[in-house]
Design a protein that fits this description.
It is a single chain. The protein contains four helices and two strands. By secondary structure, the protein is mainly alpha-helical. It has one domain: 3-Layer(aba) Sandwich (Rossmann fold), CATH 3.40.50. The chain has a two-stranded parallel ribbon. The longest helix is centred in the N-terminal third of the chain and has 21 residues. The two termini are about 20 Å apart.
Length: about 100
């Protein structure tokens, strides 16, 4: 997990550096950081659990909103960040994880 965590931190800081470098050209760069999103991407993870249902319940119990994200929970932010309403937002990282990192 250390390499995975380091790569995520690298992406956040890459977005910040690109926002600084490309901002004068009117290019905005932001980083979206989703937590657990209930998609088939996670199937291999659940398949390696002794009891996938128990593991899923334990994970969701640790998320303050008590569920994994649905894809549409993330797409709303993506639509906002690509709209004129976010014209003055750059160099930011937005976590969408139901409060998982907050606790």
């Amino acid at each position: 997990m250390p390499a995975y965590a380091a790569s995520k931190a690298g992406l956040v800081n890459l977005a910040r550096a690109l926002a600084d470098e490309l901002g004068p050209d009117g290019v905005r760069v932001n980083c979206v950081c989703p937590g657990w999103v209930d998609t088939p991407f996670n199937d291999p993870h659940w398949g390696h659990q002794r009891d996938p249902d128990v593991a899923r319940q334990a994970l969701e119990a640790a998320i303050p909103l008590r569920r994994q994200a649905r894809p549409e929970d993330v797409t709303g932010l993506l639509c906002f960040l690509t709209s004129p309403d976010s014209a003055y937002i750059t160099g930011e990282s937005v976590v969408i994880d139901g409060g998982y990192l907050a606790v």
